[in-house]
Amino acid sequence: MIDIQEATQLVLSRKRDFGTEKLPLEQCSGRVLRQDIRADRDFPPFTRVTMDGIAIQWAAYEKGQRRFPVEGIQAAGSPQLTLMDAGSCLEVMTGATLPHSTDTVIRYEDLQIEEGQAQIIPDANVKAYQNAHGQGTDRQAGDLIVASGAVLSPAEIGVAATVGLPELEVARMPKAVIVSTGDELVPVASTPEPHQIRTSNSHTIQMALSRWGVPADRLHIDDELEATKTALGNCIQNYDIILLSGGVSKGKYDYVPAALEALGAKKHFHKVKQRPGKPFWFGEVEGQCTIFALPGNPVSSFMCTQRYVRPWLRVSLGLEPMGYAHAVLAKDFHFKPDLTYFLQVKTHYDTATGRLMAHPVEGRGSGDLANLADADAFLELPRGRNDFAAGEVFPLLFYR
Ligand code: AMP
Ligand code: MG
């Protein structure tokens, strides 16, 4: 049995590349950019008026002139006008090009305009070249604005739009299937017999993946070796990644590892020194399908999805390995077995210190899925010790 560091290392070393695809901007949220975004023009592309008012020559104001005949109006979206007489002005609107032969904009609030004459009020505070956003002062044509590898948020989408890219090249997501196993399981919409339960893992894992941008199909397999082999054989052909839940422990009807190995999947590990999630099996059909066979208990499969599948997805998309948040254990805690313990906690910020505090919300073991709704994270308590003191800081897997 390997420890969580070795398991993590093995999972991350099996990262894959799913290629790229072009998507319209509205479908790019959270996706990883696979092209550079460069300025197609200067930012701003023309010297832009930033206040409604009049445009003048600073030199005239400096000489003491305060009254300017209005020659015309420069509206936003109109070609650039030219000021004819150095001693007059043009009315200008926010977003317009600053007219030729002007360099300073005085806002309406500092003016009185009557009968075609703009008079600057006595206590106006006017500075040279004010209220004009110079062409190319933010970025210049050809500059790299967003580099390949960025995670796309509204900020980057705005940049793509302004440089005229209605579609972006992004990392393609893997095609995933979530496979539940177990004769006791029935679909959500059915009424279980007394000895049956509804499948919850399929939905928990599906939503976790969907939050990370991976759409996934769901499939169920009964506890029967041949049926398991047939169904998994099809999944290997049709999906980049399979997330199984259940059937990987020592039970008489736990056929998943045997079926996968019979289908030619290479096992990288089976069993990790952790609780929950000890029976976790990880392997792949090289170059074709990555397989996370998670234990069936709802807390186990959920924790393993967060702790192993998500970091694997990140590196497969070309991102840096996940950095873990950390939190302060709020209460002394004792745990005896020689396993990394993923303690369920409820977090809150301590406003006095600004620290993230983690309060144990232990629950009744890995079958207690209701407890997941009370907690909001797992605190990773290392192996090799039994006592964990209030005030100690540990890595945190936040899942809300
Ligand atoms: P297994 O790993 O197959 O031995 O399952 C361990 C426990 O998890 C059993 O109590 C199963 O009934 C339960 N379990 C397995 N799969 C699911 C699932 N998809 N949804 C909810 N519970 C499950
Ligand atoms: Mg089972």
Task: Detail the topology: elements first, then pairings.
Blueprint: H1 4-13, E1 20-24, E2 37-38, E3 48-49, E4 53-56, H2 58-62, E5 67-74, E6 89-92, E7 104-107, E8 111-114, E9 117-120, E10 132-133, E11 144-146, H3 154-162, E12 167-171, E13 176-181, E14 185-186, E15 197-198, H4 201-211, E16 216-221, H5 225-238, E17 241-245, H6 256-262, E18 266-270, E19 274-275, E20 281-285, E21 289-294, H7 298-316, E22 325-329, E23 333-334, E24 340-350, E25 355-360, H8 369-374, E26 377-381, E27 387-388, E28 393-398
Parallel strand pairs: 5-6, 13-16, 13-17, 14-15, 17-21, 19-24, 22-25
Antiparallel strand pairs: 1-12, 2-11, 3-10, 4-6, 4-7, 5-9, 8-9, 18-20, 20-21, 22-28, 23-27, 24-25, 24-26, 26-28
Helix pairs in contact: 1-7, 4-7, 5-6
The chain binds adenosine monophosphate and magnesium ion.
**Taking all residues together, what is the mean pLDDT?**
98
Question: Considering DSSP H and I runs of 4 or more, what fraction of the residues is helical?
Answer: 10-25%
Low-confidence stretches: none
Q: Which ligands does the model contain, each kind named once?
A: adenosine monophosphate, magnesium ion
Largest sheet: 6 strands, mixed
State the secondary-structure class: alpha/beta
Record the strand order, biggest sheet: 7-4-6-5-9-8
The separation of the N and C termini measures 30 Å
- Structure annotation, total helices: 8
What amount of the residues lies in strands? 25-35%
Radius of gyration: 31 Å
Find the count of extended strands (DSSP E, 2+ residues).
28
Shape: elongated
